[in-house]
Design brief:
The chain has 15 helices and 36 strands. The chain is α+β, with helices and mostly antiparallel strands. The chain folds into 4 domains: 192 residues, Rossmann fold (3-Layer(aba) Sandwich); 84 residues, Elongation Factor Tu (Ef-tu), domain 3, CATH 2.40.30.10; 197 residues, OB fold (Dihydrolipoamide Acetyltransferase, E2P) (Beta Barrel); 85 residues, Alpha-Beta Plaits. The strands form 7 sheets. Strands 8, 9, 10, 12, 13, 14, 15, 17 and 18 form a 9-stranded antiparallel β-sheet that branches. Strands 2-3-1-4-5-6-7 form a 7-stranded mixed β-sheet, with helices on both faces. The C terminus is likely disordered.
């Protein structure tokens, strides 16, 4: 058991893609916790399969390294705004944060969010000016911008006097001054030990801990992870769990685990300042207090910012139901979502009154929800997803909707296009700045509704050269109607396999989402119409053949490759009367209903 004075608990926070996980890779390698022959993959902390595929961190991860006789617990946090619930949850477990800022890009929207949370909790950040070796890095400018941001967010005098260091996480070096030797990360380890305060807590007081994250083990059941605030705990000890309603229950600790590098290791006992995982409390929830039976305490619950977007998870009712997945019933769907609700505190999952075919799931954004949907389809679920809706609230009889602070970086030639697009979506421009390299930086306040479906268009409108990031800012009065999708869709009029001849004739009507040989059914969205109305089409129609050979009448069919949607793109794309059908191998879109009048009107097509 370590003396709390020799422990440092830190979290690494930053905007997405500013190099947290890469820096952590090198911190782990240079702390010599891996054996010499051990092969260490890149972004080693991104262990979840979707994290590897998407190249982003989704869940906060714990690790521990030793530097001299100091034990340093490090938590890697997500940088994407949709997973900010993970950041809010773990900041209570640490006593200091490393705020990473890209020395070229400077502070970004997510930097503002995570920093404001850390400052409100009284933490004093250590600023790491990362990617110092990039050609256009401007560390002095970035440091000034960081100071301005601290000032803007109401940092106190002690927080404004923040320590800082220059680093390259990719190349594995840090330096106190720009003129120092570029050697290794020792200066960063030394700065952490010098400036990060040791965790408060006394080993001689009664045991006290709060569950900050929950994990699940097939053999041990639910496990609670948190920092021990006071006292010590040994395997076999009895603790009292106090839930958010004040109910008490006694439990025996069957296993205590700590972290070393990438591994969880069983330890016989732990004390104040240690971040540990405790097994033996089957009903534990996030925010529950665990205390000594002779000294029962209830700590304030962990509160998170409210979700801003909701979707409905529906039973799949398409003609292809059951072809692809093995879980298709409402009972299976409900059971899986309730399991998610127990461990994922930043998602809100609720029943819809009067409906037994749908469950509402609320989250921070489309990506936040898409990660859950993607996990479920990989587990063999089939389901329907409705169009996302923003969550509004009433204040003094006025309907309030969420606004997002949007940061856009585009080549100067595309700035006008983006300003026009976001203004049409009720966005208000806050700032515009063009650098000497011809890169324009724009700041907007845009209703969350206005951003839905825009990210796909944004990439097209900026020829893939733009960067758009956003983060929840505040609630503001309802901004009125916003037209998100300007074009209608092509809808299949019957079942069958899409035919090359039919698709060739249809592609002049718009862009297609299916290719020859793809299965289609009545009501399925097979393409985007070039005009603003929907069109019912026959995608299975074959060429009529005769037994007369006509010289030269056959021609080559040249088809444009179909547009393929990712899960987030499909959720973003659909209109109010459409839904996304998600199965383990397919993502399809379909109309919720087709009336007899629709069919008659389009029967000639």
């Amino acid at each position: 058991m370590h003396d709390p004075e020799k422990i440092r608990n830190i979290a690494i926070i930053a905007h997405i893609d500013h190099g947290k996980t890469t820096l952590l890779d090198n911190l782990l390698k240079q702390s010599k916790i891996f054996k010499e022959h051990e092969k260490v993959p890149e972004r080693v902390m991104d262990s979840y399969d979707q994290e590897k595929e998407r190249g982003i961190t989704i869940f906060a991860k714990h690790t521990c390294v030793y530097y001299g006789d100091y034990k340093i617990n490090i938590i890697d946090t997500p940088g994407h705004a949709d997973f900010s619930g993970e950041v809010e949850r773990v900041l209570g477990m640490v006593n200091c944060v490393l705020l990473l800022i890209d020395a070229q890009e400077g502070p970004m929207p997510q930097t503002r969010f995570v920093l404001s949370k850390a400052l409100k909790m009284g933490l004093r950040p250590i600023v790491v000016l990362n990617k110092i070796d990039r050609p256009h890095a401007a560390p002095d400018r970035t440091l000034n911008q960081a100071f301005d941001l601290f000032l803007e967010l109401g940092a106190n005098d002690e927080q404004l006097d923040f320590p800082y260091i220059y680093a390259s996480g990719f190349n594995g070096f840090a330096m106190r001054k720009l003129t120092d030797e570029r050697k290794d990360l020792s200066p960063l380890f030394e700065l952490i030990i010098e400036k990060a305060p040791p965790p408060p807590g006394n080993l001689n007081l009664p045991f006290l801990c709060q569950a900050a994250t929950i994990s699940y083990d097939d053999y041990l059941g639910r496990q609670s992870c948190g920092r021990i605030l006071e006292g010590k705990i040994s395997k076999g000890d009895t603790v009292v769990r106090v839930d958010r309603n004040g109910n008490h229950s006694n439990h025996k600790i069957v296993k205590i685990e700590g972290h070393l590098g990438l591994k969880k290791i069983e330890i016989p006992e732990a004390g104040a300042g240690d971040i540990v995982t405790l097994s033996g409390i089957p009903e534990v929830e996030i925010g529950d207090t665990l205390s000594d039976p002779n000294h029962i305490v209830q700590l304030p619950p962990i509160t998170l910012a409210e979700p801003t977007v909701s979707v409905e998870f529906l039973v799949n009712t398409s003609p292809f139901v059951g072809r692809d997945g093995k879980h298709v019933t409402m009972n299976k769907l409900r059971e899986r979502l309730l399991k998610e609700k127990r461990a994922n505190i930043s998602l809100k999952i609720e029943e819809i009154p009067g409906r037994d075919d749908a469950i509402r799931v609320c989250g921070r954004g489309e990506l936040h929800l898409a990660v859950l949907i993607e996990a479920m389809r990989r587990e063999g679920f089939e389901l329907g997803i409705s169009k996302p809706k923003v969550i509004t609230k009433e204040e003094n009889g006025i309907t309030m909707e969420p606004l997002e602070r949007v940061h856009v970086e585009v080549p100067e030639s595309f700035a006008g296009t983006v300003i026009e697009d976001l203004s049409r979506r009720k966005g208000e421009m806050q700032s515009l700045d063009t650098s000497e390299h011809g890169l324009t930086t724009l700041q907007f306040l845009v209703p969350t509704r206005g951003l839905m479906g825009y990210r796909n268009d944004f990439l097209t409108r900026t020829s893939g050269l733009g960067v758009l990031t956003s983060i929840f800012d505040s609630f503001a009065p309802w901004k009125g109607e916003i037209i998100n999708r300007l074009r209608g869709v092509l809808i299949s009029n019957g079942p069958g396999k899409a035919n090359g001849y039919a698709l060739f004739n249809l592609q002049e009507r718009g862009s297609l989402f299916v290719g020859p040989g793809d299965d289609v059914y009545e009501g399925m969205v097979v393409g985007e119409h070039a005009r603003d109305n929907d069109l019912i089409v026959n995608a299975t129609k074959a060429k009529q053949l005769t037994n007369v050979r006509a010289a030269g009448s056959d021609e080559n069919i040249i088809l444009t490759p179909p547009r393929k949607f990712t899960l987030e793109q499909a959720i973003d794309y659909i209109a109010d009367d459409e839904l996304v059908e998600v199965t383990p191998n397919f993502i399809r879109m379909r109309k919720l209903y087709l009336t007899e009048n629709d069919r008659k009107r389009h029967s000639k097509d």
